């Protein structure tokens, strides 16, 4: 299934963890800065974050959200179930992509970034969704240059009913 990409107008904003959660929970994709601001306000309420979080700089410098915040949001939206895998051996994103299962979805947390990964009926038919665009095996050069050697910290396997 091909999912809607992050609009070009929002690609400069750092909301990768929240975007991965939007993909996993099948929430509507924010289409404007106002929509993104509204989503940030909703997330602030759900996560009980202080007024200062994403205050004056919103949404320009939102940054990623933590693993615990991601799990809280997935629980709140109830769109899927999940399994968390904290990896002992920390493979690079490129190596981890070789170990994915067919017909699965994941949220992958790196040190300071998060991705949503969707794998088709063939292991090599993965798609990595990020605010910078969608990466496939055929277009993995740009992704590898940015994040290919970064170590995967945690993987959340998304299970849809």
Provide an overview of this structure.
The protein has a six-stranded antiparallel beta sheet, with helices on both faces. The chain is of the alpha+beta class. Helix content is 30%, strand content 20%. The chain contains five helices and six strands, in the order αααβαββββαβ. It has one domain (8-159): Cathepsin B, Chain A (Alpha-Beta Complex). The chain is globular and about 40 Å long.
Task: Set down the secondary structure blueprint.
Blueprint: H1 16-24, H2 33-47, H3 67-77, E1 81-86, H4 93-97, E2 104-109, E3 114-119, E4 126-130, E5 133-136, H5 140-148, E6 154-159
Antiparallel strand pairs: 1-6, 2-3, 2-6, 3-4, 4-5
In a few lines, what is going on in this structure?
By secondary structure, the chain is of the alpha+beta class. It has helices spanning 16-24, 33-47, 67-77, 93-97, 140-148; strands at 81-86, 104-109, 114-119, 126-130, 133-136, 154-159. Strands 1-6-2-3-4-5 form a 6-stranded antiparallel beta sheet, sandwiched between helices.
Strand percentage lies at 15-25%
Helices and strands, in N-to-C order?
A: HHHEHEEEEHE
Multimerization status:
single chain
Using only C-alpha atoms, the radius of gyration works out to 15 Å
What structural class is derived from the secondary structure elements?
alpha+beta
Query: Total number of β-strand segments?
Result: 6
Please supply descriptive tags for the structure shown above:
161 residues, alpha+beta, Cathepsin B, Chain A, six-stranded antiparallel sheet, 6 strands
């Amino acid at each position: 299934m091909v999912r809607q990409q992050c609009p070009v107008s929002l690609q400069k904003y750092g909301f990768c963890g929240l975007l991965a959660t939007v993909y996993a929970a099948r929430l509507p994709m924010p289409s404007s800065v106002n929509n993104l601001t509204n989503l940030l306000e909703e997330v602030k309420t759900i996560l009980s974050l202080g007024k200062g979080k994403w205050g004056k700089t919103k949404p320009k410098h939102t940054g990623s959200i933590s693993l615990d915040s991601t799990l809280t949001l997935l629980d709140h939206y109830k769109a899927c179930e999940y399994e968390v895998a904290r990896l002992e051996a920390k493979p690079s994103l490129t190596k981890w992509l070789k170990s994915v299962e067919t017909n699965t979805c994941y949220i992958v947390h790196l040190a300071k970034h998060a991705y949503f990964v969707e794998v088709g009926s063939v292991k090599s038919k993965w798609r990595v969704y990020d605010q910078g665009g969608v990466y496939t095996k055929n277009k993995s050069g740009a992704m590898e240059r940015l994040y290919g050697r970064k170590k995967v910290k945690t993987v959340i396997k998304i299970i849809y009913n």
